[in-house]
Amino acid sequence: MKENRVRISTAATMIIALSLAWSGIAYAKPPKGPHGDDMRGGKSPIMVIERHAQELGIGEDTLEEIWEVADGIQQEIRKIRRNIRGLKGELKAQLENEQPERTTVMTLLDQIGALQTDAKKLEMGVLLDIRPLLTVEQREALKKFKKRHRRGKK
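-> structure tokens emitted (154 positions)
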């Protein structure tokens, strides 16, 4: 009975450790965009809009307005991402212990999840804020572009 609990605990610890290892890879030195770090550690939707502005029919003035909106939030999102990385480091250290403290691990997971939700809300808020800057035609072109892009990834 006790042997089964030890096996289950060990298996769970290994799964969590592997998950952290993979998530650590995702946060390894993200590429930087023309306006510094992007919001997501990859290609932010705003950077995609900028890169394909001509195809989407978006002019320089609109791009500047979009970046004014986005730049205001980027700093806050970067701060949240740094906090997430710090908490993941703490979690990893906990899981490397022979007997990780369960309540500490669960608390760290809750904190990481809450920060990830905060970052996602800020990102979505930026997208909602820039929506009125685009015409109906530009939004439709962006939707079509995103559909094409998704199909290409699969």
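Residues 2-153 form one domain.
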